[in-house]
Amino acid sequence: MSEEALPFSEVYVPDKDRYLEYYRKSIEDIERFWDERARELIWIKTWDQVLDRSNPPFYRWFKGGYTNINLNALDKWIGTSTANKVAYYWEGEPGDRRVISYYDLYVEVNRFAWALRELVGVKEGDAVTIYLPMIPELPVSMLAVTRLGGIHSVVFSGFSSSALADRIVDARARVLITADGFYRRGRVIELKKAADEAVKLAEDRGVRVEKVVVVRRAGVDVNMVEGRDYWYHDLVNEAPVKAYVKPVPRKSDDVLFILYTSGTTGRPKGIMHSVGGYMTYVYNVFKWNWDPRSDDVFWCAADIGWITGHTYIVYGPLMHGETQVMYEGAPDYPQPDRIWSMIERYSVTVFYTSPTLLRLLLRYGDKWIEKHDLSSIRILGTVGEPINPEVWRWYYKKIGGGRAPIVDTWWQTETGAAMISPAPGLSLVPLKPGSATYPLPGIVADILTPDGRKAEPGEKGLLVIKEPWPGMLMGIWGDPDRYIKTYWAMFSRPGDGVWIYYPADYAVRDEDGYFWLLGRADEVLNVAGHRLGTIELEDAIVSHPAVSEAAVVGAPDPIKGEVPVAFVVLKTGYEPSERLEEEIKEEVRKLIGPIAVPSRILFVSKLPKTRSGKIMRRIMIALLHGKPVGDVTTLEDPSAVDEVRSAIEEFKKLMKE
Ligand code: PRX
Hints:
Luciferase, domain 3; GMP Synthetase, Chain A, domain 3; 30 strands; globular
């Protein structure tokens, strides 16, 4: 963890003291700090109170303020030179291209918002589920919904119909926006088919989707239900060419959107973000992270179905008038240099991605990189998981040419935007490969031991956030108790008025005060930078009729960081077989989606459990990582450990072959 002096371009000369001075001032009076930051944005009415702390942990930002995020992301550019600037250079996987200016985007959003209001009947406060691939109609739909004062719930297009149905039911969405299909690795994924199944599943559970809007993307045959389904393009064409929909004034503490993420129970949580707080936080953090310039070409290679895309492909860059690259398909299709060729083609200046993607591309070898001129890059970023120092160095040297700082951003769906990360837009601190450096301004982060003591430098502990921040979640849709239990119960002392946000991440601070993030501290896996709840996976596995019990844990994986491995106990009368393994995997694909499919199903006759019946995942994790299992005296039947051990040895042998 020793500090390395890294020679950046002259623009980014590290200066830790300058950063820390700014940081120190920011947290002296966080309310004043955020009050000033919020004034950089357009509001319909400014707030009466910066932060309402009267009902913790339900903090409310910019109370009494009114705005609409469209005013800052779209309308403010009209009548300026940015209107004619490219908002998105979009590339489809087959190589088709679209160039969309800020003005084009504004016109399209207005026309679609008009159609949603007049023809589909979307009103303020309505939840609209959006199940779209990475096509421009996705940001258009999000902006059109928020323009009308609706609440979008974007569901990643890689989720199955059953996962989509869960999210439609939970949000009680009456309107669904989807596409006929999209391209992935040269194949067409038929999205409308999955959407139809989801609508049916939701209806069986009492939630009727009244209208479905379908974007034609792949040109595949779809079943359109008369009176329920509309073609997106027909709707937009019915709107006046110069339709103008006034952005609906929304309270700062209204819900801007919901985004589902996995937790430690079987049910995904609908994370609610606020209109004014999210807008303020994202606007500022984007500026600190990427130091936006008028001639930038910004590329965040995430999917908008996750929070990274919401913040860093839609709202953050648009609020800064950035030109972006947006891509539909697989990152290594048709060849491993797809990403590098696109960086060259569009002269990308800021590139932001996940360590998983970097590990994948690194493995293909440098010859794919050397074919391309990547000299336009001035800042690189990573997100989603800890980045291994070797990969960091490769990224820094090979992709950034040793000129571009690496902005390692630690954050979560719940936090709205980055929380711990370098800030070249303010003052860059010297970087250490693998560390997300310091908390961003206004963020009071600390590391505690499980008993609540402040961890010493070098001592591993649990990350906490000790003051509210504007980008924080407002709560969990329909489940206030779960919000308190999940994020605040661990360290808060309500009796003393102390409220501490608990993200469930391990971390350590070094002697220089740098934060190193060390992975999840709860039963949530991080597979390729995506969160998967082990219990959600176990529920999917036990829904197979042959399965009696299942325990899912993460096994180390050189590319994805970790992958789910399932230990499965079969019901009597069933024998382990490859066919059964495939069937169980198929069940997970059907219920959640391809990203959740376990890499292996290991059949055992019993699981290691405590005498009170709790599955001891800790033991399986230790064995998978080749570590000692520790204390097993509380086990109901210690022979379960031997069985798990031999299943893992078998599995490891297979992995080597
Ligand atoms: O464990 C942390 C990890 O990803 C989790 C959040 O996942 P999600 O809500 O899906 O959001 C991902 C994109 C923001 C965190 O609790 N994580 C995220 N960024 C980093 C990270 N771990 C280490 N370093 C990071 N930069």
